[in-house]
Amino acid sequence: MTGTRDSVLFVHWHDLGRHLACYGAAGVVSPHLDALAADGVLLTDAHAAAPLCSPARGALFTGRYPHSTGLIGLAHHGFEYHDDVATLPAILSRAGWTTQLFGMQHESSDPARIGFDDWDVSDSRCDHVVARSQEWLADHGADGPFLLTAGFFETHRPYPADEYPPADLAGVTVPPFLPDARPVREDIAGLQASVTKADAAVGRLLQTVTDLGLDECTWIVFITDHGIAFPRAKSTLYEAGTGVACIIRPPTSRIVPAHRYDDLFSGVDLSPTILHALGLDVPEDMEGFSHADEMFGATPETADAVRSEVFTEKTFHDSFDPIRAVRTSTHRYIENYARRPALSLPLDILDSPSALALDGSQDLPRPERELYDLRVDPLERVNLAEDPAHADIRDDLAERLRAWRTDTGDELLDEATGTAIAAEFMRRHHAQLDTEAARQDNRSLPSRRPLGEQRELRTRD
């Protein structure tokens, strides 16, 4: 694509998966993102590189897999980028873009390491983030190309009713991978209420872009990090854990017709795609691929697919839980490298009403290998890994996974080392529980705190 000096407004949410009306989530009120999808490019088969916050976000901002960036676990557990990792804001800053962050980031305990020229992480709730972003756009939007990143705390747990008045349970549709029980409906109602509030904030921000006349030269990029914070979604490598909402609206000057992009897309592809769309070189160490020509070219509907598969990984969440997977348009193959229960629930899901409504099958042993035919089993309930009739498919996907791990230098920790690392970061976690922030209702986990000072994030000097 030809070089431009377009700007980028990058909006990202927490723990949303594809729980939006434009992705078919019944009962969800998200009119502004639905309108953005109708006016831009709706990615229907986008996947996180990892099913938890820091590793997934690191992949979005670097174009590299978690085991390549160093973010194989959560930033508040002590994981950080390797020193040689270049981020999208740092690359754009060096190329002459002004880069600004407001609100949520979960890639480092020190926001200075992420590469923005300036940042405000004092409050990541959507109302604060949008108000600050609107002010910044009014003051600086016309000054030249920018990357403005608006990171929302929403739709992370908790969903307090005073902040997110819950939807009527009659209008709630429980995702089919969860039990349809009243506690789960109430839990989903809280999630949907936070979606509606955050969606309204996006609407205000997009209206500001229009009012300031920036539509013509600004890419709007919306994405979330991974699946919703419910059992069998977040922290798993199943569809509900890796599938993400992603909408990209090109500048109006590009005259790109609105359309659906149905090809596979990985979180590591986002930075290469943005850089290519801006006419900049994609660094050789990025492991993702640009989809810019295929998405935004003259005839995107006839373009060849960039990918035949996506790879996903998990190493640490609140425990050591090494898993790798490969997904094609028809199948998902998973390798579990440690003996664990079927669902290893992270702390923010473990105490949820939805987790308490499970039937106990989550504690059954997890198989070493899993294979699902997504054409007939989209909920991934029938494991075909040991079925001789599917051995050729299993072996082909296992070889693709092995080759990817070799090519990208993915070396797993042994059980003793990984378990010891997890025990140490959980010891530090329990030691910090005696703080004012931790004593607040539902805020004992650092990831549940929207204020930067409560997350012990460095503020701008």
Classify the secondary structure makeup into a structural class: alpha/beta
| Number of separate strands | 13
Distance N to C terminus:
39 Å
Sketch the topology as an H/E string, one letter per element.
Answer: EHEHHHEEHEHEHEEEHHEEEHHEHHH
Strand content: 15-25%
Q: What is the radius of gyration?
A: 21 Å
Extract low-pLDDT stretches.
none
Q: Summarize model confidence as the mean pLDDT.
A: 94
State the helix count: 14
Helical content class: 25-40%
Describe the biggest sheet?
9 strands, mixed
**Net shape:** globular
What does this structure look like?
This protein has 461 residues and is an alpha/beta fold. 30% of the residues lie in helices and 16% in strands. It contains 14 helices and 13 strands. The chain has helices at 31-39, 53-62, 66-69, 88-94, 126-140, 182-211, 239-242, 270-277, 292-296, 347-350, 353-356, 391-407, 415-431, 436-439; strands spanning 7-13, 41-47, 98-103, 118-120, 146-151, 218-224, 243-249, 259-261, 265-266, 310-316, 320-327, 331-336, 369-373. The strands form 2 sheets. Strands 1, 2, 3, 4, 5, 6, 7, 8 and 9 form a 9-stranded mixed beta sheet that branches. It has a 4-stranded antiparallel beta sheet with strand order 10-11-12-13. A hairpin with a 3-residue loop joins strand 10 (310-316) and strand 11 (320-327). Helix 5 runs parallel beside helix 6. The radius of gyration is 21 Å and the shape is globular. The two termini are 39 Å apart. The relative contact order is 0.16. The model has no long low-confidence stretch (mean pLDDT 94).
